[in-house]
Amino acid sequence: MKKFLFLLVVFCSSILLSSCRSLHIGPKGEGEYVFGESLVPLDEENMPDTKKRGVYGAQQNAVEQVAGVFLSSSRVVDQAKIVEDKILTKTQGFIRRYYVVDNYKKGEYWYTKIKALVLVSDISSVVRENEDATAKKTNIMVASRETVRDDVSLKQDCKQAIYRSLKNTPYTLLNGDNLSQNNIDDPASLIDKARYEGARFIIVADASTAPLENLGTALITPFKPYRGRVNMRVYSTKNYAVVAEGSSQQSGLDALDDISASKSISASCEQAAKSLIDPLNSAVNSAVKYSLTVREVNSIDRLKSLQSILRDLREIEDFNLVRYNNSAAEFEVQTNIKNPEELIAKIIRKHSGQFSVLSSSPNSIVLMYI
CA 150 to CA 181: how far, in whole Å? Predict the structure, then answer.
């Protein structure tokens, strides 16, 4: 009888283990397992509170990682505000379960690492609900070199004039660097930085002003006339192509030299920026949109790697993660390539062995991530 009971227990256990092996916890189940880490100030007199804060910080880190894959650079607004207000303030509501992998003292801090089951679909729903409030706009960085009498000016009069000229356009303007002559002559590193910071285009303005001389004795006046000049170029951050150019010369007049110089730079930059609007609109609207589905993604880490691949492909100008479930990620992709076969060829050629093609149509591509 005992032997029979033993065999019965073994048999039932084998069935249970077999069932467990077939249970897939991940996108097909309740959520996605993600590692989260934190480093919090150590209070040795109150270790229970220290450990509690460590776990909560690690939970926030895990949830933030999942939220991050849904927040594309093309969604402006306070993307961070959405994460903070709608998601991170309710961290524990997005975690089904967790366990502590490691924790220990690290100098004056307490390190915690957890493995948490994060409800990916719930976070995705929160982001989608807020998409209307975070209207997609094209990110454009603005960078300038501004000189007065050949001396570098840090007042950013030209940048401010560009912002005013483009304030009613469907672009999000990002503040770029104050440039050197080397940046003007060879903007490649500048363009790379703009792409890294999420800009699809960068406006590079080279503005200068100087007092007008030799006006003759007929114009004796306390006002100081200055003449401003600017040359602007708009580069695509994906392929370094110049998509728009503008230039202008305008005068400024005031009793004070500084104000006259500022007026002349502002006027010339405002005029040149307005001439960029039509070619910029053409460049923005020239992109072709595809639905790109990638199967067998299987984890947040692999999803991040996939997004890095898409980000680094110069042919892809922008993309958004539309949904991620059942181990598949669906993107809306904007590219300067006019047919899907050519885009597939570019992806496969650059990342040989990482993808196989499942299907394609005029508006959609389905790949398998190996």
Answer: 12
